[in-house]
């Protein structure tokens, strides 16, 4: 109760314990999962000859200019602050813009093509929501300086291998591939000339999975009235133009070669479209040489990414596993990563077009998807072995046991709270400890140690019928000579 005799300035201020919206706290389970994914994927990237690179968290805001509507709102989309030299700096929005700045700044000294991978947190000043954070971990791999379609193919093959290494076995995900040149050729053949109409068509195509063919047909034409009564104005195409777009986006059934033939029938004759077909054919040939089958990477004409960003091949990783939330309800993760060719980003700094291609995925999102599919990244949770603290007089013995276990590579801790034995056992259970070590006066005098196998106890507890008998039998508990401690604990933890 506040002392009413105190003035407001004398009263103790107690801030509310809360974290900012869109910024998540992560405990060991989440961090272990992210670490396991990053280690597995990094190993794949390095096998492909990609160099690790880490750029700073801050970039000058003008380096992220494509995300800023105007110079009067430097915080729009990013978290920015003004440096002491009056320049605006912003926390990086992604890992690609810093790469473009780095490549432009160091181009003369870099090996070309420059192949790099990177991972780390990125920040977005956007409205947070379910599964949508303002700080999250990304992992990217990019090739800068090669215009060859084989560079795209290698990124795709590496993404397939990386996702598999992260915990998605074959058949759990698929890379879907398209080419912006095909879309541009299609729009030219359909008589689409203005940028506004072009964007309307691409946005309609991008909704194929959600609205189906008839919903997209309406958006390609006059427009669509949704269930809420809201009307979305369409792209204004008519007749054969609508049919050709729909034929194009539905040409993705079958293998990569079959899909190429279907696409050629729809857009053949457009110079840009034919260029896109040639690039996809070269990507297909390279993927075959790299051992990437049709069920791992396919051509999907309905894939639309970065309407004003990508210049050639685009690709998107889709999760195929069945996923459920904590309550057993089915959830859909859809895309878990993507990328493509972006030949204009470095040119923002140099004025010269520099070809580049890459793939990126959200680490936290992938970890959540794996968990929802019953595939815990990093393995099951496991805490340290806990040494029960019976008596302050024997603290040296407890720490000697902890040191011996740690020297053998086994995580261990001495309980340093002030509770009795039963709460200490509950503490060890809450830590998901594999075992508890009991070293009382009798054990110390006899040169023995008692070990409680907590993993076995948890496993057997589900079938308990008689609590008294359970306590009498003490399942998983053994007293052994002190010298056999490490071997016995290793046997419990399976290592």
TrEMBL record:
Composition bias type Basic and acidic residues, residue spans: 13-25
Keywords: Aminoacyl-tRNA synthetase, ATP-binding, Cytoplasm, Ligase, Nucleotide-binding, Protein biosynthesis
The reaction(s) this protein catalyses: tRNA(His) + L-histidine + ATP = L-histidyl-tRNA(His) + AMP + diphosphate + H(+)
Region (Disordered) location: 1-25
Sample GO molecular function, one term: histidine-tRNA ligase activity
Superkingdom: Bacteria
NCBIfam families: hisS
Stated name of the protein: Histidine--tRNA ligase
Organism: Caulobacter rhizosphaerae
